[in-house]
Design goal:
It is a single chain. By secondary structure, the chain is of the alpha/beta class. It has two domains: 116 residues, Response regulator (Rossmann fold, 3-Layer(aba) Sandwich); 99 residues, Winged helix-like DNA-binding domain superfamily/Winged helix DNA-binding domain (Arc Repressor Mutant, subunit A, Orthogonal Bundle). Helix content is 40%, strand content 21%. The protein contains eight helices and twelve strands. Keywords: DNA-binding, Phosphoprotein, Transcription, Transcription regulation.
Length: 226
């Protein structure tokens, strides 16, 4: 796998490069955001530091996401909750705070890759109600006839709920199915993505929260064949 390591700390970059190389990965290191954006097309995976010398890493993430769906894990010393939320909302697949063990990083990369290869949607119905139209086959979402763009993970969560409207999915079930990692049950990642779905669609009731139980697609939502 070709890994783009965006890190300006020479010692950490060298250690991560060596660890990834031992596992057979090919690593290209970029110390600046502009170099990372230029090299993104050759990457299968991106590890992104936020403290870059030429651009804030969150802005680099936003620019990267506008052009690519490549898996991204943010690796940073920023541990404030607002930074974690901004990173996840900006399209990161995971967020890892320094210092961390290399084994944990590798495990998280493997989890991101696993869930990226699991077919969460396939040819199937269109789910529609209250002006919302979710096409599970094409992964398109429309609200009142206008297209709405979700992040890949936001749509994965919505698609899981839409496959069986009205069926309650527990937090653990969603995290296992979409993230492939039950360790995220202690994180805010799922909450962030559900909040993103509600905000972007303008339909707070599209995803219902059942306190102590889980989530389901709004009970007013129905399934159609096209």
């Amino acid at each position: 796998m070709h890994v783009l390591l965006v890190e300006d700390d020479n010692r950490l970059a060298a250690a991560l490069t060596a660890a990834l190389a031992r596992l057979g990965h090919q690593v290209v290191r970029a110390g600046r955001a502009d170099d990372a954006l230029r090299l993104k097309d050759g990457a299968d995976f991106v590890l992104l530091d936020l403290g870059l010398p030429d651009m804030d890493g969150l802005e680099a993430l936003r620019r990267l996401r506008r052009a690519s769906a490549v898996p991204v894990i943010v690796v940073t010393a920023r541990s404030e909750e607002r930074d974690v939320l901004r990173g996840l909302r900006g399209g990161a697949d995971d967020y890892l705070v320094k210092p961390f063990r290399t084994a944990e990083l590798i495990a998280r990369m493997e989890a991101v890759i696993r869930r990226g290869t699991r077919p969460l949607t396939a040819a199937g119905p269109v789910v529609a109600a209250d002006g919302v139209r979710i096409d599970l086959a094409t992964r398109r979402l429309e609200v009142d006839g206008r297209p709405v763009t979700l992040t890949r993970r936001e749509f994965d969560v919505l698609a899981l709920l839409a496959r069986e409207p009205g069926v309650v999915r527990s937090r653990e079930e969603i995290l296992d199915e979409v993230w492939g990692d039950l360790l995220l049950s202690a994180s805010r990642s799922l909450d962030v993505h559900i909040a993103g779905i509600r905000a972007k669609t303008g339909r707070p009731g599209l995803v219902e929260t059942l306190r102590g139980t889980g989530y389901r697609l709004g009970t007013g939502t129905c399934t159609s064949g096209s």
